[in-house]
């Protein structure tokens, strides 16, 4: 019987079924400092040990400072951040779990570090206590975020109870317009189907537009699948996928590599596989995207206007739009290119890979940021991305343009470390969420691509 890629991966990891739920085997668990302390505490209280140590890999990311890291954990000023990272270090040492610590050059955002190290491989089932674990589906893996109690369950048993999702295919064909990236594509799709459009589905992204994306672009797209309501975003394995994982530190070698490649080449949806829902888009219709509200689906093209609640589809949407406008301090029918920006953030698990930094640097070369920009941060996704960028001279381009070049971490994506927005500050951000207070209490976030963030830094507004 023909199967979708999601069906193949789910069935390959199926241990047993009970009614409408299934016990699936987990190949890899990625761990960070925020959602793991209670999980480890649960193991201690129950007197349990991790089922398979090698399945786990930990890294601090949310709370790490992006400046002045030479003193290590002891130098972190915020007591909560210091405690969480110190607790991760202690738990990993006590339980024997491999950790890439804060000052290791390999340290970075878990969804950047995992693929970079080969901890993410095609065909794997991968979980992490973070909703954006869908990122790893770009490599043909079954990847999704879990809660703290599930982190403990996977540590203890190597398995997890799950309800099987329905299958959705989002097909995009055609050549993307100039300066349009995977981030614009993701925001456009979310704008079209809504933040609940993928609820209950595993989304497989297909079409020649997707095939032509780099692996890093595919990661950006799958990263944002959760913002469309889907728990899983996935893309079929092709030669690009295999070339990407080749030679990674944790990738197989020798005969094991040959056997793995043979299996990986089967990881695609069969021709007559059934999808519960199919949606198609034409790449030529996609312009650069900017969010205007407090949800990723409140998004328009950069040459458009802030929508008016009077043009909403129904009373619920009308209320949501009006509440968003009230919060973000914008008026309906304002031209997007008239919106001035206070700060710029280029980073996050969505857009902090070397490809993203190259795009931004190409825009900023021999330019300077506008005088009204209070702060512009460039935060690489890992220490290895940082080193590669410095080897290519990208750091000098950013610094010469007036941006700050930081250490790796989640940074200003969320207000959980020292990099925050203040009340009333407006930010063009390459991150993935623009919820109320996401980047700081009373702050205003506009989600954009690295290209648009860099152009906005120069113009001082969207341009």
Task: Give a short summary of the structure.
This protein is of the alpha/beta class and 463 residues long.
Strand percentage: 15-25%
Distance between the termini: 51 Å
Number of helices: 15
Total domain modules: 3
Protein structure class: alpha/beta
What's the total count of β strands?
Answer: 19
Strand order of the largest sheet: 5-4-3-6-7
CATH topology of the largest domain, what is it called? Aconitase, domain 3
User: What is the H level of CATH, i.e. the homologous superfamily of the largest domain?
Assistant: Aconitase, domain 3
Describe this entry's structure for a reader:
The protein is an alpha/beta fold and 463 residues long. The chain folds into 3 domains: 5-163, Aconitase, domain 3 (2-Layer Sandwich); 166-238 and 267-285, 3-Layer(aba) Sandwich (Aconitase, Domain 2), CATH 3.40.1060; 289-459, Aconitase, domain 3 (2-Layer Sandwich), CATH 3.30.499. Helices cover 32% and strands 17% of the residues. The strands form 5 sheets. It has a 5-stranded parallel β-sheet with strand order 5-4-3-6-7. Strands 17-16-15-18-19 form a 5-stranded parallel β-sheet. Helix 2 packs across helix 5 (148-157), helix 12 packs across helix 14 (394-401) and helix 12 runs parallel beside helix 15 (450-459). The model has no long low-confidence stretch (mean pLDDT 97).
């Amino acid at each position: 019987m023909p199967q979708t890629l999601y069906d193949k991966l789910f069935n390959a990891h199926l241990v047993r079924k009970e009614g409408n739920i299934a016990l699936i085997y987990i190949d890899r668990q990625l761990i960070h400092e925020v959602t793991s302390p209670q999980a480890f505490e649960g193991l201690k209280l129950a007197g349990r040990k991790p089922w398979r140590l090698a399945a786990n890999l930990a890294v601090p990311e949310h709370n790490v400072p992006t400046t002045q890291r030479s003193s290590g954990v002891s130098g972190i000023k915020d007591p909560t951040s210091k405690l969480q990272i110190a607790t991760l270090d202690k738990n990993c040492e006590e339980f024997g779990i491999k950790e890439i610590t804060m000052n290791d050059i390999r340290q970075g955002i878990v969804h950047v570090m995992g693929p970079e190290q080969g901890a993410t491989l095609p065909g794997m089932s991968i979980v992490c206590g973070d909703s954006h674990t869908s990122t790893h589906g770009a490599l043909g893996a079954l990847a999704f975020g879990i809660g703290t109690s599930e982190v403990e369950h996977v540590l203890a048993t190597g398995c997890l109870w799950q309800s099987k999702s329905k299958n959705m295919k989002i097909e995009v064909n055609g050549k993307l317009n100039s300066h349009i990236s995977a981030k614009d594509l993701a925001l456009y799709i979310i704008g079209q189907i809504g933040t609940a459009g993928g609820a209950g589905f595993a989304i497989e992204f297909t079409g020649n537009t997707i095939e032509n994306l780099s692996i890093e672009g595919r990661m950006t797209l799958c990263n944002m699948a959760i913002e469309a309501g889907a728990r899983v975003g996935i893309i079929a394995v092709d030669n690009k996928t295999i070339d990407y994982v080749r030679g990674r530190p944790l990738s197989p070698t020798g005969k094991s590599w040959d056997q793995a490649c043979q299996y990986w080449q089967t990881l695609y949806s069969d021709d007559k596989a059934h999808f519960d829902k199919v949606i198609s888009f034409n790449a030529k219709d996609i312009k650069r995207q900017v969010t205007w509200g407090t949800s990723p689906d409140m998004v328009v093209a950069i040459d458009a206007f802030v929508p008016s609640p009077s043009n909403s589809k129904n009373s619920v949407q009308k209320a949501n739009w009006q509440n968003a406008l009230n919060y973000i301090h914008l008026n309906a029918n304002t031209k997007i290119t008239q919106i001035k920006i206070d700060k710029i953030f280029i980073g996050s698990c969505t857009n902090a890979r070397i490809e993203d930094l190259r795009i931004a640097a190409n825009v900023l070369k021999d330019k300077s940021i506008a005088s009204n920009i209070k702060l512009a941060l460039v935060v690489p996704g890992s220490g290895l991305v940082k080193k590669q960028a410095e080897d290519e001279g990208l750091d000098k381009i950013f610094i010469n343009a007036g941006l700050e070049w930081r250490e790796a971490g989640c940074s200003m994506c969320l207000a959980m470390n020292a990099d925050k927005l203040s009340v009333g500050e407006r930010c063009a951000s390459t991150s993935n969420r623009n919820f109320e207070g996401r980047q700081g209490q009373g702050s205003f976030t506009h989600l954009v691509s690295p290209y648009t963030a860099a152009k906005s830094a120069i113009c001082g507004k969207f341009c």
